[in-house]
Amino acid sequence: MADGVCSIQICMGSSCFSRGNGLNAELIQRMMSDGENIGKFSSAEISGTLCEGLCKDGPIVIIDGTVYRHVTPIVLQDLLKKRDEVSA
Ligand code: FES
InterPro entries of this UniProt entry (predicted)? Predict the structure, then answer.
């Protein structure tokens, strides 16, 4: 990963996908394509992962190596904004 580029990994295993990561993936794509203010994350590397083995705590999203559990779309928006503010 290049310097300054952030990573967002979305678990696309069946449990996480059906419990919210399908919506989370759409949300991130929409935020990036609409140019919404998500700071450093507007150029993030987005990828999907296979099951992370944490299904009971899903949906799982990993941002810059930190695992976040129970990530709803509202939680995801807050996480991206807060993490961007902390790094600014
Ligand atoms: S499907 Fe995401 S942790 Fe298992």
Answer: Thioredoxin-like_sf (IPR036249)
d(CA 61, CA 76): 8
Q: Which residues contact ligand 1 via a Cβ below 6 A?
A: 11, 13, 15-16, 51-55, 58, 60
Span 2-15, pLDDT tens digits: 455 689 999 999 99
Q: In this structure, is residue 51 part of a structural domain?
A: yes
- Which of 19, 21, 52 maximizes ligand 1 atoms within 8 Å of its Cβ, making it the mutation to test the pocket? 52
pTM score, whole prediction: 0.87
Q: Which residues contact 77 (CB under 8 A, 6 or more apart)?
A: 27, 31
Q: Specify the CATH number for the domain of residue 77.
A: 3.40.30.10
| 2 located within any domain | no
